[in-house]
Design goal:
Blueprint (H helix, E strand, L loop, with lengths): L2 H13 L5 E7 L2 E6 L4 E3 L11 H8 L30 E4 L16 E3 L2 E3 L2 E3 L2 E4 L5 E3 L4 E9 L4 E8 L4 E7 L1 E2 L6 E2 L4 E4 L10 E8 L2 E3 L5 E2 L4 E2 L3 E4 L20 H12 L3 E3 L6 H7 L4 H8 L12 E3 L2
Antiparallel strand pairs: 1-2, 2-3, 4-20, 5-8, 6-7, 8-16, 9-15, 10-11, 10-14, 11-12, 12-16, 13-15, 16-17, 18-19, 21-22
């Protein structure tokens, strides 16, 4: 037994995790750990906290009305305590593709068979795309696999990928996974095979797009007939998260992309401090060469406000 596996076994025995690692394998995608129940995952850097885009994360943290939190969890597909996006104050500008992550690939070539919206007594939070069992399903954008396993909530075999553009994409009802948790993938890479698992009546791909656990209509972003992005930019506004919302192609936005971009660039000049255990406002003010009163004004808090570990405080 190699030294790495010995310490991994020791960690599992003390942490109470149900899965027991039996081997590690070095692959071109990174080091993989294999468990006794025939599942596996890639090992992340210890410092990785789920943040794929630091600048975007800082911008989102500036909306203290919502205090959006996005964790990295390989076992939970989405939080049951989702943020109330109707309270979203600001318009957030997302670059769907950029110079470093420039590709989009439609997950499957099949036609849309069921749209986002109200269906059979409840809301259908994604798009259904036609396929045959065994057809290859591809990653829509580059990113990192957060979840890849059987889901008891109706999705069947499910893959979730977190992307640099701030979104997560869901690929459900697969017959087989082709990726493992924590694996990095490129747009267009195979991530699974189409199927009919979970709460499904006939082979198809259920495809979702979520922003901080909140579903939005994928047709807001993708033209599934042309198999391409509608726009390289997306203005995230609270109206996108109305249950069953239709695409806003024909609507007139209250704010132009140029205006949001200018404000976003100004926001990027802001600086934030991540609260750590034991921090006080006076200590943070001293480290940041500012004052407690200035910190309170920037963040809409009081000197007596309890500091939440992990929250970002604006210091500039």
């Amino acid at each position: 037994m190699n030294k790495f596996l010995f310490f991994l076994l020791l960690f599992v025995s003390f942490s109470g995790l149900a899965q027991t690692p039996i081997d590690t394998v070095d692959t071109e995608k990174g080091r993989m750990v294999i468990y006794s129940n025939r599942t596996w995952k890639f090992l992340l850097d210890e410092e990785f906290d789920g943040i794929m885009n630091e600048a975007l994360f800082n911008q989102i943290q500036s909306d203290t009305n919502l205090n959006l939190i996005q964790t990295w969890n390989n076992d939970v597909c989405f939080s049951s305590d989702r943020p109330d996006m109707s309270r979203l104050n600001d318009t957030i500008w997302l670059c769907m593709v950029d110079e470093l992550h420039s590709s989009f690939v439609c997950p499957v070539p099949g036609i849309v068979t069921s749209r986002y919206g109200y269906r059979k007594g409840r809301y259908h939070n994604g798009i259904d795309l036609n396929l045959r069992t065994g057809d290859t399903v591809k990653a829509a954008f580059s990113g990192r696999v957060r979840y890849a396993k059987w889901n008891d909530g109706g999705f069947g075999n499910l893959v979730i990928i977190r992307h640099h553009n701030g979104l997560e994409t869901f690929y459900a009802h697969l017959s087989k996974h082709l990726v493992a948790p924590d694996q990095e993938v490129k747009a267009g890479e195979p991530i699974g095979l189409g199927g009919n698992t979970g709460r499904s009546f006939g082979a198809h791909l259920h495809f979702e797009m979520r922003f901080y656990d909140s579903p939005m209509n994928p047709e807001e972003v993708i033209d599934f007939a042309k198999k391409e992005l509608k726009d390289e930019n997306l203005l995230v506004q609270k109206r996108l998260f109305r249950p069953g919302a239709k695409p806003t192609d024909e609507e007139i936005s209250g704010e132009s992309i140029a205006a949001v971009q200018a404000r976003t660039e100004a926001s990027a000049a802001r600086k934030y401090y991540k609260i750590r255990t034991g921090d006080t406002l006076s200590q943070i003010a001293s480290k940041s060469n500012t004052t407690v009163s200035r910190l309170c004004k920037l963040n809409g808090i009081r000197p007596t406000t309890l500091l939440q570990v992990g929250r970002q405080l604006r210091v500039r």
